[in-house]
Design brief:
Helix content is 23%, strand content 26%. By secondary structure, the chain is α/β, with parallel strands linked by helices. The strands form two sheets. The protein has an eleven-stranded mixed β-sheet, with helices on one face. The chain has a three-stranded mixed β-sheet with strand order 1-3-2, covered by helices on one side.
């Protein structure tokens, strides 16, 4: 059995530890003096520091991480964040920033929108000219930090891959109607994607085909990526194209002008990086 003296010493150590913790928790011994932000551009890091400025002076031991998480989540340019108490005086924040992929236009108003539909900021007219435009009718009130309406999700899905791939043309805007997505290039050419399925594959096929089409081409239809169709007059894709299946092992580019329609096989195989076993 431990002696009385040993018990008293152990009790004194425990009391001292608890007392030390309470002192450190309620004094400036471990007060936050700086917020360190990693993983974000300078502008986003500045917004995070501004959101957490009220936490400066709070002891790291008293810091309410749930509240801190809510404060950072409210920053419209932040997608996610993690936190670490870097003793003695630093709060470290690792940020995953939102990725802008489009500008939503509603009348004369413009908003910067991220890949997941977050409204990142309001924009002056003409800002971010390299991002595609998505036009939306009035009736929905946009709020910075909020989410775009569900009707925009397919359009965002069509342009999001452009943010991370090399596309050989500038996309001016995107149009979504009747489950049919269309990219409008600055050159005036339309890239028809069909529905929102396999968008990355369709864009990869379009990127390979665009350099091969004639200058007077008005549209490129990749709604069936195994059989892209290019045409010099505007009309719906021919029924034969819509009925094509993934059984085609050699992709073909069809040149549609007037009747009759003439299909021409590419002289060289069309290879799409990352297409897996899809054929092209």
């Amino acid at each position: 059995m431990p002696s009385t003296r040993s018990l008293l010493v152990a009790f004194a150590i425990a009391v001292g530890a608890v007392g030390g913790y309470l002192v450190a928790r309620n004094t400036s011994v471990f007060a936050v003096r700086g917020v360190e932000v990693d993983g974000a551009p300078a502008a986003v890091a500045l917004q995070v520091r501004k959101a957490l400025r009220t936490e400066v002076g709070t002891s790291l031991l008293r810091l309410d991480l749930s509240r801190v998480r809510e404060e950072v989540a409210a920053v419209p340019t932040v997608a996610a964040a993690s936190f670490d108490r870097a003793f003695p005086h630093t709060l470290r924040v690792v940020v995953v920033p939102e990725r802008p992929v489009a500008v939503v236009r509603q009348g004369a108003d413009s908003w910067l929108v991220s890949a997941r539909g977050r409204i990142m900021a309001s924009l002056p007219h003409g800002a971010r000219p390299r991002l595609p435009r998505i036009w939306i009718a009035r009736g929905f009130a946009f709020t910075v930090g909020g989410l775009a309406p569900g009707s925009l999700h397919d359009s965002l899905a069509a342009v999001t891959p452009l943010r991370f791939t090399r596309f050989p043309a500038h996309v001016a805007s995107v149009r979504a109607e009747s489950d049919a997505l269309t990219l409008l290039l600055r050159s005036g050419l339309e890239v028809r994607l069909g529905d929102a399925s396999s968008v990355r594959l369709k864009l990869a096929v379009a990127a390979k085909v665009l350099p091969l089409v004639a200058r007077d081409t008005r549209y490129l239809d990749v709604s069936v990526p195994e059989r892209p169709v290019a045409g010099s007059v505007f009309h719906p894709p021919p029924a034969a194209t819509v009925a094509a299946t993934a059984a085609s092992s050699t992709p073909r580019v069809s040149t549609a002008t007037a009747q009759p329609r003439i299909d021409q096989t590419l002289k060289s195989p069309l290879k799409v990086d990352g297409a897996g076993s899809t054929g092209p």
